[in-house]
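hey m, so remember when u said the tokens were messed up on ur end? i reran from scratch. heres the input so u can diff it against urs
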Amino acid sequence: MFANSKLLPLIILVMALVLSALAGIRPAAAPRPSNYSRQFLYPPEIIPYDNDTPSISVSMPSNYTSETHSFSVNITVTKPSSWNNSSLTYGNFTEYYGIIDVVEFSLDGQWEELNMSTPDTWMSTTPLIFSISLPSLADGLHYICINASGWCLFAPTLYGTMFANYVAGTSGMIDFTINAPPNISVLSPEDQIYNVTTSAPLIFTTDEPVTWMAASLDGQSNITIAGNTTLTDLTEGSHMLQVYAQVPTGSIGASEIVTFTVDFPPNITLLEPIDMPYNTTDIPVEFNVSKSVSWIGYSLDDQDNVSISGNMTLFDLPYGEHILTIYAADVYGNVGQSQTVTFARYPLMAFAPPPYPMYLTLEDHLTLFTGAALAVAVLTALVLLLRRKRRREAMYKVLPAINPAS
């Protein structure tokens, strides 16, 4: 068959080499027929990667202004529908799959990877939802950004081969502003009763620097203050206090209303007995109280208090000096006392000692001496005048006897 049988081995070798070379050449991809089935033996020449990015939505709109220093932000990450495309198939197998594997959150440039407590799955179409609690932020401008990234797979399932494309999406920069009022805590006065005082310290704190502070007492107009101060000229009774403060951004905060009470002790005036001796068996006790009271008592000679209902009479006191003080407590338990009176009781018909000691001073002696001298001079003058008068009367009686003619 061949002209030279010696060339047959060489011809066979050349044909083997040609067939081997042809076997290594992959034919060009042909258009898919409408009845495409698993008989297709080769993957497409060009891998049709899907470049659709995940969509990210944030519950906080851009240019949002918050009146609190900290709040929560909800984030939803959704895969593109093309990542689960069942319309493109190889033998009724889904061609595209997708999975989100990383979600990152940035607050003012500080990035943090969010914990995906429920990992995404390739076939899932359920959106991923995150709730982020922002830390306490200072007043002013802030921004957040969210990135989500994952894999989109082209999977010719027949061959068990996957061709992956890494795709990332971003929310872009979202600006927001913190303009929160300061938190004000009033430490003094407290919700309590202040006794025997017309002033109370005003002490408060704020959780951030402020540019203006004021206080309102009993609903009156605000009075600007420079800081902690003292409330003065407080009247007796219940009072309400509220403190205000303003931050540099203009937001004004108010403290809780503090209610406190100023209570003065009862003012007691003891009218009877008075500082004098008494020689009666019954000594009346009379006094006035400046306000309503819940208790009245007296102490005689520094003994324990004895409760009474009002004015009374002391009976059968021992002879001698005594001291008496009246006490009274108001409805808040604030106790006042009268002046202490010293008086004395002596037996009936007895000469009571004078109400004051008979000690004479030098001035007293001079006064007595002057008075005595004046009295002696007056008496002497009267005696001399009387003697002179009697002498004249005696002379007139003698003259007729001497002159009979008369």
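this time it looks ok to me. The domain at 55-178 is CATH 2.60.40 (Immunoglobulin-like). if urs says something different then somethings off w ur setup not the seq
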